[in-house]
Design a protein that fits this description.
Oligomer: single chain
Largest sheet: 3 strands, mixed
Order of helices and strands: HEEHE
Shape: flat
Number of helices: 2
Number of strands: 3
Number of domains: 1
Radius of gyration: 18 Å
Helix content: 25-40%
């Protein structure tokens, strides 16, 4: 039980530190980056088939942080997951 409580406390401290770091970066103007992502549209067809259409590429704003912050995905995550499905 102590291990679970300790991990929860450590996670909360890391998130708090990440939140404070993004606040400092916002004041310096270095909090956000952008990543080029591929956007796909999944269209259901007859017979339980799906057609995937490339809608194009677009720049997406991301936060330079460990966790998603300020409503944006973390840049390190977005760079590894460049395909977005709608």
């Amino acid at each position: 039980m102590r291990v679970v409580v300790g991990l929860a406390a450590l996670s909360a401290l890391i998130y708090l530190g990440d939140w404070l770091a993004i606040k400092v970066r916002v004041s310096h103007g270095t909090a956000y980056g952008s990543v080029m992502v591929n956007q796909f549209l999944a269209t259901p067809l007859k017979g339980n088939k799906v057609e995937y259409d490339l809608m194009g590429t677009a720049q997406q704003t991301c936060s330079r942080s460990i966790f998603p912050q300020q409503g944006y995905e973390a840049c390190w995550w977005l760079e590894r997951h460049k395909s977005q499905w709608e």
